[in-house]
Design a protein that fits this description.
Order of helices and strands: HEEHHHHHHHHHHHH
Shape: rod-shaped
Structural class: mainly alpha
Radius of gyration: 42 Å
Number of strands: 2
């Protein structure tokens, strides 16, 4: 009985051990071993020795086959992704203008307040300059004459006030107002501009658009359409910048042998164990076959 069992059992043990060693030699030894100045064969293990080649091979497969430009473009242009992007953009537009500016620019509160004041001053100067260039004297004379005549219509004063007389009074008033605006208009206008800016910065961009009768649904459709067009036009540049193949190569190069081993065993532990066990089965069969023959 021992004679017939010894062959299959020893064959199974040898098959198991050889396959187990073969699997382990994929990663071990992790560094080359030298004896009398000569590197011992099969050191380091297959994967540590071929890490550079493995990085290039995996990078090429992932970048050229698994994740292609067409696959990414199709996925990003899908309806589900488009709606998600559009919804995300619209959610961002719900943020108050002031908060959005601070988050995007990363400027301190003090600097933001200074820039807002400078903006209010510049806007006030522009408004005052525009009013200074307008013919306020003529406008006040014309409109003032009409208003005074309308107010005094049917009274005894209307008999004594001619158009020329009213104009002679309204004209200097208009000229004085225009001079005042030219010299000090920005000073009078700036407080109002600052107040309007403060009210505006508490509004959200989406709220301002809705005030202009542009609804959220319209914005989502527009955002989705713009994103798809930009993606279609810029997918080549996007892939050139991303360079997925190089990204994967660099990631594998940066990984230690221990990390590579954990990665491989996480993905293929069952398959590698099957190979080891298969060695035992083959050894057992060969032992039985030897008994039969």
């Amino acid at each position: 009985m021992i004679k017939y069992l010894a062959g299959p059992v020893i064959g199974a043990l040898i098959g198991y051990c050889t396959n187990y060693i073969a699997v382990k030699m994929l990663f071990y030894p992790k560094k080359e071993i030298r004896l009398f100045g000569h590197r011992l064969p099969f050191t380091p293990g297959a994967i540590p020795k071929g890490k550079e080649r493995l990085a290039k091979a995996v990078g090429a497969v992932v970048g050229n086959t698994l994740i292609t430009k067409e696959d990414v473009e199709n996925r990003l242009q899908s309806e589900a992704v488009g709606k998600e992007i559009a919804g995300f953009l619209c959610e961002g537009m719900e943020t108050p203008v002031r908060q959005g500016i601070l988050e995007l620019t990363k400027v301190p509160e003090e600097e933001y307040a200074e820039k807002k004041k400078l903006l209010a001053g510049r806007l006030s100067e522009m408004i005052a300059d525009a009013l200074g260039k307008a013919d306020l004297t003529g406008l006040i004379t014309e409109k003032g004459t009409a208003v005074i005549k309308e107010k005094l219509k049917g009274t005894m004063f209307s008999m004594f006030l001619s158009d020329d007389l009213i104009a002679s009074v309204a004209g200097p008033v208009g000229a004085e107002i225009q001079t005042m605006l030219s010299e000090h208009g920005a000073e009078y206008i700036q407080p109002e501009v600052e107040e309007k800016l403060e009210a505006l910065e508490e509004e959200s961009l989406l709220g301002l658009l809705e005030q202009a009768e542009i609804q959220r649904r319209d914005m989502e459709e527009l955002a989705e359409s713009v994103c798809n067009r930009l993606l279609h036009r810029g997918i080549d540049r996007l892939f050139a910048v991303l360079d997925i193949q190089k990204m994967v190569e660099d990631k594998i190069r940066e990984m230690s042998v221990d990390e590579l081993e954990n990665l491989v065993f996480t993905v293929m532990k069952k398959e590698l164990n099957t190979i080891v066990n298969l060695g035992a089965v083959i050894g057992l069969l060969l032992g039985l076959l030897n008994n039969i023959l």
